[in-house]
What we know:
Largest sheet: 8 strands, antiparallel
Number of strands: 32
Strand order of the largest sheet: 14-13-19-10-11-18-15-16
Number of helices: 17
Shape: elongated
Mean pLDDT: 90
Distance between the termini: 54 Å
Amino acid sequence: MVKDVPPAPAPRPAVKVRNVALVGRAGAGKTTLAEALLAATGAVTRAGRVEDGTTCLDSEEVEIRQQRSISLGVAAVEHAGHRLTLLDTPGSPDFVGELRAGLRAADSALFVVSAVSGVDAATVQLWEECAAVGMPRAVVLTQVDRPRADVDEAVRLCQLMLGEGVYPMHLVDRGPDGAARGLVSLLEPDVDATRAVSDDADRLRAELIEGIIGESEDETLMERYLAGDELAVADLVADLETAVARGHFHPVLCVSPLTGVGIGELLDLLVSAFPCPLEHGCPPVTRPDGSPAPVLACDPDGPLVAEVVKTTTDPYVGRLSLVRVFSGTLRPDVTVHVSGHGMADRGHPDHDADERIGVLSAPLGATLRPVAACPAGDVCAVSRLSTAETGDTLSSPEDPRLVPPWDLPVPQLPVAVEAVSRSDEDRMATALARLVAEDPTVRLERRSDTGQLLLWCVGDAHAEVLLDRLRTRHGVAVATVPVRVPLVETLCGPGRVTGRHVKQSGGHGQYAVVVIEGEPGPPGSGIVFEQRIVGGTVPGQFHGSVEKGIRAQAQRGVNGDRPLVDLRVTLVDGKAHSVDSSDAAFQAAGALALRELVAAVGTRVLEPWCEIEVRVPGEYVGAVMSDLSSRRARVTGSEADPERDRTTVRAEVPEVELLGYPGVLRSVTHGTGSYDRRPLGHEPAPAAMAVPA
């Protein structure tokens, strides 16, 4: 909890608003940088420390315990008459949903890179994640005060691995002891000062100015520069904003959050040279029925369109929704239309409802400060939206709109959960439903073939956090059990058998005799039933009864609980009684005949296989191929993308070998690999798996 909290920043016109996401790999220093920015703007009296568990933006118990961000942290602050919303995103790939939520709410991103560890493949992947959504980006080199910090090498790696348009804005001025004591701007005309700091100052300054001018709409600037005219810093900064907003120019800034070096320069650059919501634009919208809707503009007087980018459940105030307003103005205690479409395959059925919202707040981590309104371009927290889920659209009930959902990873790690007690079982369903509503990267499935309740997660760390939230936030004790991969059986060969169901115990008896022929069917064919009855030995009204009994027995299985699949059964003969034959009797005879068929010809056990596509940087293809071969996989092809240095490997793999694959793939690719899968069918299982069920 933040003490002595200043009032929330007043609403500002969109031109005075900056929504900035802090993005980078785990350990780069995003949260430490955010704390320094909060302290510099007076939002907190003292910057917290991750190591001490005192940061404003990491407030969950699991975040404090693990000393890392696992959810999107948000803080609204003021600087130089502007309202800044800082969105601190997690760096672990397991929480990419939180990253994309932050990017959805932001208009630009500060890409945080450690001057000690530099740029690696995971950093490049995050950079591409931002580029994929057209996010304007700047690079912030943190930890420049560390003993092993190498700013020049970090800049070189950024330019090499992040692509074109990366230009340093400052040089680090170090004292006799090597400590960073300040920054020297490459845009300032004091050439002697820059030369005193670096021998490369002239070259770096020329490259920076030429990069800015290259994005300028003033065609005379380049002519003036080449003619030797001194360009005004104000003109260059104005063009810098255009360059950053277009997403092709990425300035590099240096900061030392612990000493404050560079923090003031970063804040000034955010308000002077970073895009506002007017420049970033609004997402496309439709009506809830899919019909076209007018194009949005970032206008506080326009039609209300806002999006829920994050949902949390607070034990004291209930459900909280973090909302980005794209058009119109959101006000407390008004009725809005809540619409969610396009996520049914993730366990979020399409839904529409009118709800009265509660208090609007400007978040400062876990602290909420009431605000009177949230105009277009701003971000706020909304209480009392009981049906709203992450990704939903808020609009006017008289003119409902729908923002299409953003792309999210498909969770690939199943975790089987069970309630510890009956009381936990009663609460577990509600708690799991809340988790799914809060996190669109979670999927809940009750498997009909095994009966297990599966919580599908992005990775091991994601699963750990979800289980922790069930226990601590929702008070539900759950246990995890091994995930069962359902095995099935099919016939070993053809056969012909007779099933007799004859009982007589006084009164009407039961009489049904059927003769069937069976054989294995093609993979994926299911149960095919036919009849070749001649002479009416089995009356036509009982043919369906025989089929029903066979299908029911196949579903139950004969050997334990393994269903029978992919077989063709033909009813060829039988006998009936004019009084004692019935639907139930022929169902029983059909089931008995199938059991006799299995006993006569035997079965073979089949396991499910999947087709997967693995996407990795080129340097890890060999490691991925080697690991797949150890999983009984058949690699069917690969496709390289030299421009992005990514390779897609396609393979067919037994489903049981994919149970822990997300964690293994992260390990062998250093967090840069991802994959998708789809069911492929069944194939014979190894002898070790074919033991009696």
